[in-house]
Amino acid sequence: MPIHKEKRIVPYRPDQMYQLVLGVNHYPDFLPWVHSAHVYDQTEALFYADLTIGSSLINQGYSSKVTFESDANHPHTYRIDVRHTKGPFHHLHNYWVFRPYTTSNASSDQCPTQTDIEFFLDFEISNPFLKPLLQPFLNQAVNLMVDAFEKRAHALFTYT
């Protein structure tokens, strides 16, 4: 039952990172293990997504329910929760929290220019035959996930 937790400060605004992670349809553009993504039944606070993930040897589809919200009590703070609904997992839960990161001399009413990201993922593959094939691949993908989002943010939000 792999669990991955990570915290990171990135030089992008919380709303930018939040929208980037919510852009599931664009995952195949920058996450090499995501081959397809489809979002459907979207409302103001949730949507469902079907993803096909894998490598050149094996591909596996799964579906998830994604809920998202901004924190009314903490400006510029956002949360995304993902739970699998169908696919090769016994369970899969992950969340992202995006909080403003400010230095001690920054004004609290300023729009933050940096984000404190908290990422959590807990999953277990249910199929005993797929487990030895998918587990090493998924462990590697998880370790690279936050890096991939940060690189995508750099490509989208860095202006020279």
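[next item in queue]
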Amino acid sequence: MKHMKEIAKSTAISIGIAMAVFCIIGIVFDIRYQGNFSMPDYSFTKMVLGCVIIGLGFGVPSIIYDHESIPRPVQILIHMGTGCIIYTITAFSVGWIGDTTDPLKVILIVAGQLALAFLIWICFMVYYRKEAKLMNERIKAMK
């Protein structure tokens, strides 16, 4: 049961981050197009569903970190590899990549999106390392 709660928590956090990034980027595009940013043919709905899929794609595989017998680099590869593959497929499916006739543009967009995913991961890594250090200090203080 504890495992399910952890999966639900990490998935909810991942979906929340995906939605927040989507909203921020939407605001940027709305400003760029001076309030004339439109999304026909259910594009908005598809993109919101894409955010949910990406949240699942990064949230569910994060349970790999609970398996201490698996080396950390392999855990990262499984978690981020799964999330980034789902992210890239979803990005192409919902139209976040845009015009796919220019390979350089596609590569730059995908690289930017993957860089953002790793930046978010690094932020979580730093946060959890600080928290672990604080816990260790508290344990030492108790002795």
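[queue empty]
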